[in-house]
Amino acid sequence: MDNRSHWSHRPTIMAPSAMITTPHYLASQAGMKVLQEGGNAVEAAIAAASVIGVVYPHMNGIGGDNFWLIYNACDKELKGLNSSGRSGEYATIDFYQREGHEKIPARGPLSANTVPGAVGGWEKAYNYSAERMKATFSWEDLFQSAIHYAKEGFPVTPSQEYWTNINLDDTNEQFRHLQRFSEFKKIFTKTSGFSYRCGEIIKQKDLASTLEGISKEGNRLFYQGDVAKAAVEDLQTNGGLLTYNDFVSHQSDWVKPLSVDYRGYGVYNLPPNTQGFASLSILNILNQFDVPSIEEGSADYYHLLIEATKLAFEDRDHYLTDPDFSFIPIKELLSAKRGRELANRIDFTKPINLQKQLDSKGDTVWLGVVDQYGNAVSLIQSIYHEFGSGFIPKNTGILLQNRGSFFSLDRSHVNCLHPKKRTYHTLNPAMIFKGDQPFLVYGTMGGEGQPQTQAALVTRILDYHYPIQAAIEAPRWLYGRTWGAASNSVKIEGRVPDGISESLQKRGHQVEIVEDFTDVMGHAGVIKIDPDSKVKLGGADPRGDGAALGF
After folding, report:
1. What homologous superfamily is domain 255-361+427-550 in, according to CATH?
2. Residues facing 72 on adjacent strands
3. Domain ranges in the chain with CATH number 3.60.20.40
4. How far apart are CA 465 and CA 440, in angstroms?
5. What are phi and psi for residue 192, nearest 5 degrees?
6. pLDDT digits (tens, 9 = 90+) for 59-104
7. Which residues belong to the active site?
8. Residue 109 DSSP one-character state
9. 147 phi and psi, to 5 degrees?
10. Which residues pair with 80 in a beta bridge?
C-alpha cells in the first residue's frame, strides 16, 4: 500500500484479525500472545503495559500514572479512564517554602509527591473488561511476561543506555546525577558505576517480587498492603511527604471523553486534568482551513500547524489543572466559534509570540490495541521525566514518578499545589471514529510534543492520505524548548529541505535543526481499522524500539 511518494523505511503492518503497537518489541509480543490466545484488547493492553514498565524503565513503570480510552464493541461505548494520582495530604505550598524551595524539586523524594496511579488503572480496566467485555484471562496470568523479564532479565536498548548515561551526568545535580539515589545506582548501574550497555542483560529482582505480589493480590497489595507501607516508610525516612493514607485513598475514575469534529470524523481525547482538549483544539483550529489545499511538508504547512499549536496552548495554559479545583469552560474552548476566533489570529507571514516557556520533558509510552472482537484501547503511561523522581523505595523496585514537580508554588497559578489535587498532565491518548466505529487508534510520548505529533498524524492520514507507517516516519517538528534554553524554538528534523527551514526563519521562527529520527520528537504509533474489510493497519515509530504486530 505504500508508494514512492509516501515512502517509509518499514512497511505498514496489515492483519485481518487483531493488531497491537507499542514502543518496545517485547511489550508488543506480550500483548500479541494474549490476543492470539483469545484475550481482548484490555487484557492485551495490561500485559503489554506491565512488560513495558519493566523493559523501558526510563520512560514508564508501575510508579507512574496512566490514562485510557476503551471502546467496548459489545456495548458500542467509548469510555475514558483517568488513573493519575493525587498529591499527598501534607503536600502544601507552605511546606515547600519553609524548606527554602521556590519550585518543587525535579528529582528525589520531594518530587514524588503524588500517588502512582498506573496499577489502579490496570485493575479498574481489567474489572470492567471482565464484567462487560467477556475477558478470558485471569489477572495473575497477565503479569507472567512482565515478571519473567524482571526476574530473568532483558537486553538494554540503545534508548535506555543513552538516557541512563545522560542521568548519570553530575554536572546538573537538580535534574540528573541519579546515582546519588542508592537504589537507582544498585539497579540501573553496574558495580563499576557505569550504565549497562546496549545488549547487556539487566535484572530487577525487587520489581519481580513486587509484580508477583500484585499478580496475586492486585490493588490491595499496592495501595493498602506491604508495598504501600514500604514505599511510605522509605519516602518519609528520606524527607518525602506521601502517607499510607494517601495510598489507601487513591481512586481511578471513569470520565467522559471529549470530542470535536474534524472533516466529518469524530476525534476523541480525555478531559482535564489532561491536555487532551489542547490536542482537540489544534484540530478545531485546523478545521477552519482548507488543509488539503496546502502542500504537505511546505513552509505554509509547518507554519499553520505551529501557529495552531501556540493558540491552543494559550488556552490550555490559562485553564488546565484539576477541574475539581478550578472551573474549565471546555464546551466554549472546543466550540466552532472558538476555533474560528483562534484561526483568524493566524498570519501566514509572521509567527505569534508565545511568552510561556514550554515544558521540556515528558518521557512516556503510548500503546494501542485492536482485537478480533472489535474492541479498541488507546493507553498512555508515564513517570514524567526520564527515570521519574529517581527515587526507588527500598526492596520494592518501584521507580516513583516526579509528575507532582509540575505543580506551581505560586498561589495565583491555575495549577498551584494543593493537597489531594491532580496536577496538569501532558498525557492524552486519542482515537478517531468514522461514523459509530473506531477508525484510528493513535498516540505518542513527548510532553508538549504530544498534541503536535497527534496533529501531524491526523493531517497526514486524513488530509493527505498517507499510509500509516509513512505518516509516522514523515519528518516532524517540535515547538518548545530544551533544558537550559531560555526560549522556545522550532526544532525540525534535518530531513526537512533547507528551503523550508529558511522560509520559516524568514517569517520570524527561531529554527533549530535536529538529527533525523530523533526521539526528541516522541515515539508515535497508529492502528487504522479499514471500515469495509476490517483489516487492521498498524505502524510503530523508528524513533523508538517498538513494533506493530498483527494476526
Report:
1. Gamma-glutamyltranspeptidase, small (S) subunit (3.60.20.40)
2. 77
3. 255-361+427-550
4. 13
5. -75, -15
6. 999 999 999 999 999 999 999 999 999 999 999 999 999 999 999 9
7. 364
8. G
9. -60, -45
10. 69, 255
